[in-house]
């Protein structure tokens, strides 16, 4: 639904620039945008992936958003981004560090990694 409405570029710009961050986080969480952002991170072109990773980095500072990210299956994608272009590496590292602050989410991430390597 967000894609059809053309909301994704606006959300990316909003988070990338940091405008109205406190108010926009709850909108993103309630709209189920996290899975859409993760899909764009996985399949988007370089520019889109850079902007999406920046948006997810902003989301990763919020505890509730980290929980949504934990359920999204993004950790393996982030680990792959550590081998990409510099801005993608920086954003991926920032997200992973922020996600590590939440022990419950870390259990979810570790399970994702175990599943990938089984």
UniProtKB/TrEMBL annotation:
ARM repeat extents: 32-74
Xref: SUPFAM superfamilies: ARM repeat
Family matches, as InterPro entries: ARM-like (IPR011989), ARM-type_fold (IPR016024), Armadillo (IPR000225)
PROSITE patterns in the cross-refs: ARM_REPEAT
UniProt keyword terms in alphabetical order: Repeat
Protein name: Armadillo repeat-containing domain-containing protein
Organism: Hevea brasiliensis (Para rubber tree)
Species lineage: Eukaryota, Viridiplantae, Streptophyta, Embryophyta, Tracheophyta
